[in-house]
Amino acid sequence: MTSGARLDTNSQWISRRLEELGVTVAFHSTVGDHLQQHVDVLRIAAQRADVVVMTGGLGPTRDDLTRQALSQLSGRALKMRQQSLVHLEQMFARRNRQMPERNHIQAMFPEGSLEIFNPQGTAPGVDLTLRVSDRHKCRFFALPGVPAEMRRMFDETVAPRLLEMIGSSRQHIEHHVMKFFGVGESDMEQRLGTMIARDRVPRVGITVSSATISLRITAAAPDPQACQRQIETARQEIMSRVGDLYFGHGESYELYHAVQRDLLMRGQSLITVEFGRSAVLADWFASLGKTDAYHGGFCFAGPEELAALLDVPTADAYDVLRKRSGASWLLVVQSYPHLDSDASQALEAQPVDLVVVDPEGRRILASPRIGGHPSIIYSRIAKSALAHLRKQIQRGDQLQAESEAAIS
Amino acid sequence: MTSGARLDTNSQWISRRLEELGVTVAFHSTVGDHLQQHVDVLRIAAQRADVVVMTGGLGPTRDDLTRQALSQLSGRALKMRQQSLVHLEQMFARRNRQMPERNHIQAMFPEGSLEIFNPQGTAPGVDLTLRVSDRHKCRFFALPGVPAEMRRMFDETVAPRLLEMIGSSRQHIEHHVMKFFGVGESDMEQRLGTMIARDRVPRVGITVSSATISLRITAAAPDPQACQRQIETARQEIMSRVGDLYFGHGESYELYHAVQRDLLMRGQSLITVEFGRSAVLADWFASLGKTDAYHGGFCFAGPEELAALLDVPTADAYDVLRKRSGASWLLVVQSYPHLDSDASQALEAQPVDLVVVDPEGRRILASPRIGGHPSIIYSRIAKSALAHLRKQIQRGDQLQAESEAAIS
Q1: Could you list the residue range(s) of the whole structural domain that residue A234 is in?
Q2: Domain end marker among A142, A166, A190
Q3: MoaB/Mog domain: from which residue to which, for each copy (chains A, B) (predicted)?
Q4: Interchain contact, A37 vs B44, CB within 8 Å
Q5: Residues from chain A contacting residue B37 (CB–CB below 8 Å)
Q6: What is the DSSP string of B137-200?
Q7: ipTM score of complex
Q8: Could you tell me if residue B1 is inside a domain?
Q9: Domain check: are B101 and B198 in the same one?
Q10: Which residues of B are less than 8 Å from A151 in CB distance?
Q11: Same domain, B266 and B403
């Protein structure tokens, strides 16, 4: 990890979880496969923190030094834990393999430490409390580096043990994630004001990923009902401030989910066409699996290729495509901007042509000016296209209501 | 960063660059917006390293503490640098904005430090050497956290200053990146043997991203010619061991670039069809921009939708699509596996049907067994499809050569 061969995503994941549990994260440290450096880093950490969550170094090879470092720091010898050894042997037996001798080390723990059970892999974790001074103890939780194993072990074992440490007043934690699109992070922060202050109860965290803004409400209270009440109050206050930008809730809920929901509610469907350098929309909707809301995605260099395939004049291509596919709506991103392969600077905002063809065959063009960093500009354009489509879908309802009102 | 609100990618990038320059990276440290903790982390770093590269904390707000921490650690007051102030004022003037008072801090440097010029942003970097003891000095390079600014400043200013520190024998650094597909990392390492030993000259680093393996040769020598000779020798040795898996070179060269090259060389072209949950192939080829090698990408839930759109029987859909589009080759991923939205464990290997339709209309089916982590399985499948296609393209040449030999 120190050499940069791999990207560390564990530190971020663990930090978020700890902050949600009410534990402030003050430091991250990364160290290479060097025992003395490993021990030094742990000693420094023990002096400045009450809890240290570690990942990696629990494998069976000589490069894996976490057990030895904990043992050396604490002065407690590594002892074989029979129960862990049996579990290890069973894991190998299930894969019809003989357990190599070197894996024995994975069943060894510093005396006085607890095991952190690993249901998925061969590396159990270590839970060791070190008395640093008369007034200060530090508890180490050592987990494997494999993210899937680490995450499950954190949620199943480390989090409950931490809650127990923190005491009985905050036994329950509930989360609620709200999603927004259509404004930058700083404007959002301004509109939210004190809602996102660090000392607010419940805590509201803001994160941005490719122009989607997430507000994560974390409620900690003696019981689940109190958590839910906190969340509901915060949710209402947030909606009163930025409800116009809200499109749904849930950790991985995105604008295309909101479009799918809008369409299914109305018994309608969509196809998408993307010209140029990306197939983001097609990829997003494909990820939904088979759904009545989506009839397919098309990616061409330009409209001529689409017309050639359909064997119709270019001017008719959108209408023919929509009709043949049987979809209610057609959404077209007419061009994604060219990016230099080594582009690293934000692109100046430039107009991007977005076309919606509605169920009556009317074309509604929008040309929002969109800029941003190369790594996110395509998804920002695609999201702007979805926002344009949603406005038309909702406008359709309004027109419908108006025409019904006129008739009645 | 400590709270997990953002993912740290700078540490990895800087570590790779440092290792390439011959500097071993021993530790990463991350600290929050707390001055005393900041100073403590810098003090620890100064004691254990000769060079510390820092990012972030150079903005104009009260949360930005890097300058103050360096000043406090070194005991050197922050002084205004007139030249930097003028540059700052010019940056604001160019954007037709008045420079706020608080930005003045960005032109202040600890006495005795050097500026690291920032051509893109308002935050110049700081280059400060601290005498830790009679025998040990530590040099700090503080850079802004914005990746694009940081990267350019590292390459333009920090790297040359580091090379100068290291001494005259290694003034030149050259890189060569070779790309491979078709085998796992551990098999690759086994076949490479001592080629990837850390003390080898030139150094060969191995990284894996979504099943593409990169070998990065870093040659350091007194002159560029010597670098090139080192690289050529290493390249030949690598090709003799794993040349069968090689598909091209360059940092961002991927299998779809190799397919584009194969097709353009032969005056041929491709369309792709993806059924199910992803549009990876369409997105990759779209990213190439307008190219004679690619006629478009289609994403449907299943073959029936494709047939309906073309208004032909399902059995004929592939042939009609290929002919109407005018493409030589059609590549179909018949299904991407379903992933649970919260899937975190590797999927068991399962057969995935891949179809190539060749320029004569023959269908060549392959059903490789593919598994892997949810985050990479779709791109692994798409890459396997491209590998299947490339085999057929190259087989086409062989058949052509054989038939020409038979005629002559």
Answers
A1: 170-249
A2: A166
A3: 2-165
A4: no
A5: 26-27, 48
A6: EEEEEEE-S-HHHHHHHIIIIIHHHHHHHH-GGG-EEEEEEEEEESS-HHHHHHHHGGGG-TT-
A7: 0.72
A8: no
A9: no
A10: 344
A11: yes
CB contact under 8 A, B11 and A8: yes
Q: Are B104 and B158 in a shared domain?
A: yes
Which among B11, B279, B288 has the least Cβ separation from residue A283? B279
A1 found inside a domain? no
For the CA atoms of A264, A266, A271, A273, the dihedral, rounded to the nearest 10 degrees, stands at -110
Residue B3 inside a domain? The answer is no
Do B265 and B373 lie in a common domain? yes
**Cα–Cα dist B373/B355, whole Å:** 24
CB-CB: which of B40, B277, B326 is closest to A286?
B277
Q: What is the CATH number of the domain that holds A185?
A: 3.30.70.2860
> Do A146 and A177 have their domain in common?
no
Query: CB distance A26–B6 less than 8 Å?
Result: no
In a domain? residue A43 = yes
The CATH code of the domain that includes A328 is: 3.90.950.20
Distance of CA B332 to the CA centre of its chain: 27
Sorting pLDDT into bands at 50, 70 and 90, what band is A285?
A: very high
Of A32, A99, A89, give the one whose Cα is nearest residue A66.
A32
Task: Among B5, B26, B274, select the one facing A205 at the smallest CB separation.
Answer: B5
pLDDT at A171: 65
List the CATH number of the domain containing A71.
3.40.980.10
What is the count of residue pairs from A and B with beta carbons less than 8 Å apart? 228
Q: What is the CA radius of gyration of chain A?
A: 27
Q: What tokens appear for B307 in the block?
A: 């047939």
- Return per-residue pLDDT of chain B as tens, 408 residues: 898 878 899 999 999 889 878 788 999 999 998 999 999 999 999 999 999 999 999 988 888 899 999 999 999 999 999 999 998 898 888 878 888 888 899 999 999 999 999 988 888 999 999 999 999 999 999 999 988 889 999 988 998 899 888 774 566 778 899 999 998 888 898 999 988 887 788 888 888 888 899 998 988 788 889 999 999 999 999 999 999 999 999 988 999 999 999 999 999 999 999 998 889 999 999 888 888 999 899 998 888 888 888 888 999 999 999 998 899 999 999 988 887 755 566 788 889 999 999 999 999 999 999 988 787 889 999 999 999 999 999 987 777 777 777 666
Do B99 and B65 share a structural domain?
yes
Distance CA B10, CA B150 (A): 8
Cβ distance of A296 and B295 shorter than 8 Å = no
Q: What count of residues does chain A have?
A: 408
Residue A13 confidence (pLDDT) above 90: yes
Q: Do B28 and A29 touch (CB under 8 A)?
A: yes
DSSP assignments along B168-182, one per residue: GGG-EEEEEEEEEES
Cis before A144 (ω within 30): no
Q: Can you tell me whether residue A66 is helix, strand or coil?
A: helix
Q: Are strands B294-300 and B270-275 parallel, antiparallel or unpaired?
A: parallel
Among residues B228, B249, B270, which one ends one of the domains?
A: B249
Residues 6+ apart with CB under 8 A from A243: none
Mutate to test the interface with A, among B3, B52, B254, B345 (most CBs of A within 10 A): B3
Give chain A's domain count. 3
pLDDT of residue A259: 97
